[in-house]
Design brief:
The structure is a single chain. The chain is mainly α and about 150 residues long. Helices cover about 55% and strands about 0% of the residues. Among the domains are: about 55 residues; about 40 residues.
Length: about 150
């Protein structure tokens, strides 16, 4: 079950205020959030993992694993935009990525999320002139040529 940040913080608070008792923390949680009997409350492992997270990083938010690298910087977004504008039709996203030294997943993410380019759709161009003439059926086409 997904617990809100407020609920996780309350469970950690009640754990410490009730003498580090899991059962007392669960009872306080049930009373505070008005959860009826036989409904789910945070389990032992959940509360202990929130306590561990709080002790380690000072927050009950879920810890993120790994190093957070940011490739979608304004400079890289502008580089991808310029590369696409220079050769929009001739290059694939993979070829743009190789030319710029950025992974193709990052280039696709920049194209999709930042530049609003979507795969399998051709960019639309604004037509400023009169609409193109429609093809007429055989006899009418010949009549149109005469006129």
């Amino acid at each position: 079950m997904l617990w809100s940040r407020e609920q996780r913080a309350f469970a950690v608070e009640s754990f410490f205020s009730n003498g580090r008792s899991i059962v007392a923390a669960q009872r306080a949680f049930r009373a505070r959030f008005e959860i009826p009997p036989r409904r789910l409350v945070p389990g032992r492992n959940s509360i202990l993992s929130w306590v561990y997270s709080f002790r380690e990083c000072g927050s009950v938010a879920k810890p993120r694993n790994g190093l957070q690298l940011t490739i979608r910087t304004p400079e890289n977004i502008d580089r991808v935009r310029q590369s696409v504008l220079r050769s929009p039709r001739r290059r694939s996203a993979r070829k743009h990525a190789v030319a710029m030294g950025i992974s193709d997943t990052s280039v696709r993410r920049i194209l999709h999320k930042d530049l609003q380019f979507h795969p399998c759709t051709a960019p639309r161009r604004l037509v400023t002139g009169p609409p193109a003439p429609k093809l007429l059926p055989g006899p009418l086409r010949d009549l149109a040529r005469i006129i």
